[in-house]
Amino acid sequence: MRQAAASLVLFCLAASGSALANASRHEDPSAVTSAVRQAAAQTAPAQAAITLGPVAAAQYMPACTVPLSVTISGMEPYQQAAVHCAAPIWTLYVSVTVDSRMAIVVAAQPIAGGSAITPDDVTLQDEPLSLYAGRQVYRHIQDVTGAIAVLSLPRGAILTSTTVQQPVVVQAGQTIAVDVRSGAVDVTLEARAEQSGRIGDSIMVANPTTGKRFQATVTPNGAVVQLGS
């Protein structure tokens, strides 16, 4: 009897010790890093650089007894990874930067503010997305040719919609030719511009004969009114 009781006590102590050991174990941050990188790489462009924020908080989480699952959210380059453990249940959030590169228009030489941009002033250069995230950039040299530099730009500066603007091609009060289109019908008439405009702008114009006012879109080939099909 004494031997059986002693064996039972030893078994209980061993089981208790094992439970305490498991309870004291914490998640390995390197396992979290590996899981996040693998998930981010599945959606990242080829050759993109993937950088993770701190994962040290993983060492305070109980060790996960099942494979980790990761959900990536947000837009490149700045995203967030939600690392989920199902047993025991916990979630850890890790910031992720997916920095791909793209050829965009940059200054090939210093450009003086107020000057018109020529093809020789700019070039295409691969730049990481993190340098211009949230800004409108240009991918073709012809998109900025003839545009005006809003401010002086050093060599290598990325051209954006805030640093260059299209020149004013229509002045308020100017008489212009307006192309009026309606389905297959295309009629050109003279109208008076009531607003100044750049290419891409919508401006108000008026028929000097009837006084009727309507909106026209300024295009590289002149003002256009689209009445529908």
Estimate the global geometry from the Cα principal axes: elongated
Number of helix segments? 2
Mean pLDDT across every amino acid position: 88
Largest sheet: 5 strands, mixed, barrel
Signal peptide: 1-21
Function: Involved in the assembly process of the P-ring formation. It may associate with FlgF on the rod constituting a structure essential for the P-ring assembly or may act as a modulator protein for the P-ring assembly.
Protein name: Flagella basal body P-ring formation protein FlgA
Domain SAF: 102-165
Describe the fold and architecture.
The chain is α+β, with helices and mostly antiparallel strands. The chain folds into three domains: 23-99, no CATH class; 101-165, Alpha-Beta Complex (Type Iii Antifreeze Protein Isoform Hplc 12), CATH 3.90.1210; 168-226, SH3 type barrels, CATH 2.30.30.760. Helix content is 17%, strand content 38%. It is built from two helices and 15 strands. The chain has a five-stranded mixed barrel. It starts with a helix and ends with a strand. One of its GO terms (cellular component) is periplasmic space. Belongs to the FlgA family. Keywords: Bacterial flagellum biogenesis, Cell projection, Cilium, Flagellum, Periplasm, Signal. It holds the Pfam family ChapFlgA.
